[in-house]
Design brief:
The chain is of the alpha/beta class and about 240 residues long. About 35% of the residues lie in helices and about 20% in strands. The protein has an eight-stranded parallel beta sheet. Strands 9-10 form a two-stranded antiparallel ribbon. Helix 2 links the parallel strand 2 and strand 3. Helix 1 packs parallel to helix 8. It is globular. About 40% of the residues are buried.
Length: about 240
């Protein structure tokens, strides 16, 4: 079973590789659902990894309907990723009505070239998931990352199983809330891949800043999220 780790830093990526992860999805700002990492981070991770690295292409947090300028940024980011030799692109575009924007999604898949392409959790917002998945699979998308349209993959397991039955060329990869205590359920259900971050909060500075820099409360402003190799080893052991 492929265990893909959503890594938010070089440290997290190295920890994931050390623990035995089979693949990295590299992003920044996990508390915002992930956004595109910097050029420098992608470059350093590519230099350090000997496992496949997929990169999230998402120009901002929030919804998945993008302006023309945002979309062009995504295309440029994909070009940068390809120049750095990444193995895969993780992305997706919706319309204002939360249906897949097929034209733009096809365009970014085409821009990804020979890179593996994962349609991400924008899928969890669409109204007709089974019909939408049929079209995604027909497009030649390699992997669908989804929670089964629920807050966690365990809660969405029923839909995830329905999607798995329909899959033949596109791998269904459950993600959201997967940890060492429940990963085995996805193995038993027949999934070939799971996605998780396995992060813990690490105190970064000893004093909590008195002036906040974050617009919304997520983690403490003196904390960072880092993938924990011990947690990840438990997950990998349980599914392999």
């Amino acid at each position: 079973m492929i265990v893909e780790v959503c890594a938010n830093s070089l440290e997290s990526a190295l920890n994931a590789q050390l623990a035995g992860a089979q693949r990295i999805e590299l992003c920044s700002e996990l508390t915002l659902g992930g956004i595109t990492p910097s050029y420098g981070l992608i470059k350093k991770v590519m230099e350090a990894m000997n496992i496949p690295v997929h990169v999230l292409i998402r120009p901002r947090s929030g919804d998945f309907y993008y302006s023309d300028a945002e979309f062009q940024t995504m295309v440029e980011d994909i070009a940068i990723c390809k120049s750095l030799g990444v193995d895969g692109i993780v992305s997706g575009v919706l319309r204002r009505d939360l249906q897949v924007d097929w034209d733009r999604t096809i365009a970014i898949k085409k821009a990804s070239g020979s890179c593996s392409f994962t349609f991400h959790r924008a899928f969890d917002l669409v109204a007709n998931p089974l019909e939408t998945f049929d079209k995604i699979q027909e497009m030649g998308v390699d992997t669908l990352l989804t929670s089964g349209q629920a807050r966690s993959a365990m809660e969405g397991l029923s839909l995830l199983k329905q999607l798995e039955k329909k899959s033949n060329t596109c791998t269904i990869m459950p993600g959201a809330g997967i940890r060492d205590t429940n990963a085995i359920h996805f193995k038993h259900a027949g999934f070939k891949a799971i996605h998780l971050s396995a992060t813990i909060r690490v105190l970064n500075t000893i004093v909590l800043p008195q002036i906040p820099m974050n617009a919304a409360k997520g983690i403490g402003e003196n904390e960072v999220l880092v993938t924990d190799p011990d947690i990840l080893k438990k997950v990998i052991k349980s599914v392999n």
